[in-house]
């Protein structure tokens, strides 16, 4: 394994442990509440306006799949893994460049493209592992709390969550590698995430605006309701392709620009 990959993990170890613990706790707490929630499910489903359910991509609150979608996979779960991806990827190139430490990292006998690719690979593995935590936790806890959702459907939603993290992490890496600015990378990718989440939600509320949802990565993640309908490979490939293309473009831009040292 590359020394640069090992150093990236070593430098980020505290952030990695913190994010992993936070995502694990969030998923475990919300999944464990399902037993207590069942008795009030119909009441909560009736109380939630139909427009709000459409905005949040909640098909229902009375089924186990609807509960998982409303709690783990609809809002807070995607928010956590996307934030984790953006903050960790900003540490690959923009942060050491702004702090003046990138010169020490680039003393390794690597080309610029290899340097950027290895920093990206190290953080990409980390983000993938953290985004996969809800998959592991829900799969392990579901039988114990009475969540009767096919494991294949849980896997489909969870892989979609990973692909969503790749999408925005790739965009942030591309912007950060091209500009060397941490704030620019976070602002561009974060604004895109918020704007496209809102766009997907309001698309269904506007007459004739349903086509707008196809412009939002969140539609490719949760718009197909994978916890009820299972796998949609084309949507997952589209999400991952945006992330990969943005990351590759970032590597090329990093190779061609002046680096601040």
TrEMBL record:
The keyword Calcium does not apply. Keywords: Membrane, Transmembrane, Transmembrane helix. GO terms for cellular component: plasma membrane. Pfam families: ABC2_membrane_2. The keyword Transmembrane applies. It comes from the Bacteria. The chain crosses the membrane at residues 16-35, 70-90, 120-142, 154-178, 185-206, 236-254. GO terms for molecular function: ABC-type transporter activity. This is ABC transporter permease. It comes from Catellatospora citrea. The lineage of its organism: Bacteria, Bacillati, Actinomycetota, Actinomycetes, Micromonosporales.
